[in-house]
Fold:
Amino acid sequence: MSRRIEPYNHQEKPILVVISGPSGVGKDMAIARLKEMGYPFHFVVTATTRPQRPTEINGVDYIFVSTGEFAEMIEQGELLEYAVVYGDYKGIPKAQVRQALTSGKDVIMRIDVQGAATIRRLVPEAVLIYISAESEEALVNRLRQRKTEPEDQLKMRIATARQELKRLDLFDYVVINADDKLDETCHKIAAIITAEKCRVEQREINL
Amino acid sequence: MSRRIEPYNHQEKPILVVISGPSGVGKDMAIARLKEMGYPFHFVVTATTRPQRPTEINGVDYIFVSTGEFAEMIEQGELLEYAVVYGDYKGIPKAQVRQALTSGKDVIMRIDVQGAATIRRLVPEAVLIYISAESEEALVNRLRQRKTEPEDQLKMRIATARQELKRLDLFDYVVINADDKLDETCHKIAAIITAEKCRVEQREINL
Structure:
């Protein structure tokens, strides 16, 4: 599963990074900012059955599919992982990840905590990062400001966030995404990836 | 030895970083550059019996002591670790490290591979970074350019570097310090420290 690094003439292996955390914490914003910063990652585009938001672009932010199309992807074994998240299906297209890794690119995927647990089991060599708000109040405020969910769904999301915190031991790293500190958050994510690529024991990923 | 991080209101613990690697690889230059970059670390000043080089400042680059003074430090248990390196004694003053950690500062120490092995045993929570040249030829060239050692000592240093590479499994990270890439090396060391401070399992150091 792992190999010794050769300090002379060594070749770095691409790594698989999972960005997770509660709804509203800023995972999408962090990934968008990392893209802007020009890191040469492959950002996995998740397939989802949830309705497209006005600001979102199909094929860039998500691959928006119907429930029937999603069922077909499950049937064909095309998804590395999938789950029902707040009534909508979300899944990671396996071929996309495999192609990126084969081409030598690091892969970043955004995934909920339930999905992160699945990835930990399927791909133990993945690097799992949990993005947290600085406090529960801050998380609640951000969810209210987003105004994309009705109040009862919002309560569900807060209850879920509380439960998910108990799964923190699944993760390798936790990064606090404080209000107005998105650049610091992205700097920390980038540092984690740089550090992981310097590890003596490198992770060999087999999907 | 380790504790769970609390994402809300958590306090980061200071970490202990060991920078090691072969003679001539650029450990001193990397540490000097990190200092210039203004990272708020405590850089441990090693005590040594080796002669002061013209460019070195006593108390800043090393604490230069006589063999008698060094023997007294050993006697009094004042050294965390010490060793004979190419005929000269080098040691880490324990009080200096303890004071820095107590004040909440991260500590960086420069140490030879033999000493790094001792630190790994005494302080398993330390983060060990091995600095490597990009090739043996590059290392030999740098040692020759430095012109601080006679040819037979140079041969000894190269033989030692070869042996030390076999101890790479002692270390957590390896950073290649290629010619003219000192800033990249320092960026990687800083990234490793940033990442380690985000680890879910934080390291509690007891000296």
Notes: The mean pLDDT of chain A is 88. The interface with chain B takes residues 4-5, 7-10, 129-130, 132-136, 165, 168-169, 171-176, 187-188, 190-192, 194-196, 198-200 of chain A (CB under 8 Å). Chain A has one domain: 12-203.
